[in-house]
């Protein structure tokens, strides 16, 4: 996903990566822009910025930098970038129109935006998610009584219409869908993955006393979903969107 997003960048360009995380799209973009260009990554999470900065140093990348920043309030002058990229971030931002306005502001006229978001789940994706959820639900605390009807981040920006609506100040909006398959060699790998991304918050809510049982039940339950050699395939429907700032 990151490689595809980063390929949008052109040699010599100044690129902003909004919500760069550990740099999945920042590093491919830095390679694309080359020594004449520059990539600046921002992320709200200090830990992400710390680790991505360490990776930049470790890899000896001299044309990229990462700082703490908020998509809703970009700390850059108007028209200071040729391109902005943002991979699986905007649906986390409480005020998405404000983030889109900020992105438009820091792009030069004619500058390009490249986004990755989730596309609509297919019936088979929903069925797999329900199975996985049902295996974990007995171990999760009940949802808070005050839970609102607000959509969760993974429910936001899931249609082409919602992207067009968000990017109403941009032109030439083009969306391409892609089914990203993630292959887990064993159910244990899938369990570890749940702790490494956005689901971690949910996993941490499992009480420590029942965690070993949850682990055992979940990984055993996954065996019915694996191929004979034990592999589990999880498919993520992704949507890549490009747009131009007039
Ligand atoms: C799913 S990760 C994607 C990271 C990276 N773009 C990638 O493709 O690997 C989402 C990232 O968005 C960051 N994030 C969430 N809200 C943000 C905001 N308002 N401003 C900047 N970054 C934000 C999170 O800290 C996290 O690193």
UniProtKB/TrEMBL annotation:
SUPFAM superfamilies: S-adenosyl-L-methionine-dependent methyltransferases
Methyltransferase domain sequence ranges: 11-133
GO molecular function: methyltransferase activity
Pfam families: Methyltransf_31
CDD domains listed in its UniProt record: AdoMet_MTases (cd02440)
Superkingdom of origin organism: Bacteria
Protein name according to UniProt: Methyltransferase domain-containing protein
């Amino acid at each position: 996903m990151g490689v595809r997003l980063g390929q949008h960048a052109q040699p010599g360009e100044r690129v902003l990566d909004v919500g760069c995380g550990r740099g999945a799209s920042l590093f491919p973009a830095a390679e694309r822009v080359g020594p004449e260009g520059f990539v600046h990554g921002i992320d709200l999470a200090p830990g992400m910025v710390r680790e991505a900065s360490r990776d930049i140093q470790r890899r000896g990348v001299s044309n990229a930098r990462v700082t703490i920043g908020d998509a809703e309030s970009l700390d850059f002058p108007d028209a200071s970038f040729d391109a902005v990229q943002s991979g699986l971030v905007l649906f986390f931002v409480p005020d998405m129109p404000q983030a889109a306005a900020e992105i438009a502001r820091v792009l030069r006229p004619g500058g390009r935006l490249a986004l990755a978001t989730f596309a609509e789940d297919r019936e088979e994706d929903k069925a797999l998610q329900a199975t996985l959820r049902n295996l974990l639900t007995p171990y999760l605390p009940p949802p808070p009584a005050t839970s609102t009807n607000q959509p969760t981040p993974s429910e936001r920006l899931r249609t082409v219409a919602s992207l067009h609506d968000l990017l109403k100040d941009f032109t030439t909006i083009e969306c391409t869908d892609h089914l990203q398959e993630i292959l887990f060699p064993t159910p244990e790998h899938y369990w570890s993955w749940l702790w490494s991304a956005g689901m971690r918050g949910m996993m941490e809510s499992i009480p420590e006393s029942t965690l070993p049982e949850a682990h055992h039940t979940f990984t055993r339950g996954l065996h019915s979903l694996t191929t004979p050699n034990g592999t589990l395939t999880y498919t993520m429907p992704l949507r890549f969107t490009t747009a131009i700032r007039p």
